Amino acid sequence: MTLDIERLDPSAPGPRFDGAYELVQVLGAELDPDMDRDTVESFRNKLIGNETFEKITLVGSDGDDVVGLARVWLFDIEGNRDLAE
To answer: Please, is 33 exposed, middle or buried when counting C-beta atoms within 10 Å of its C-beta (0-12, 13-18, 19+)?
Structure first.
């Protein structure tokens, strides 16, 4: 298996965004079968940063299949600029 990793642009529709959305929904349902699924727009909004957090989303794919997702929040708050989550 060859794993390709790329930064996801949450504002750009396409197969990588769709695959990331489906992966998060499947994993969430495994953790909590009673969980309400995010809407596509709700998921997109969770990935978009703001003046306080830069949000970076990376997707790992094997061909056309998204098989991994990493989200990093970089803080832009005085005293916390050296932190990430």
So the answer is: exposed
Per-10-residue mean pLDDT, the chain, length 85: 90 93 93 90 90 90 92 84 80
3-state SS string over the chain? Answer: CCCEEEECCCCCCCHHHHHHHHHHHHHHHHHCCCCCCCCHHHHHHHHCCCCCEEEEEEEEEECCEEEEEEEEEEECCCCCCCCEC
Neighbours of 84 (CB within 10 A): 12
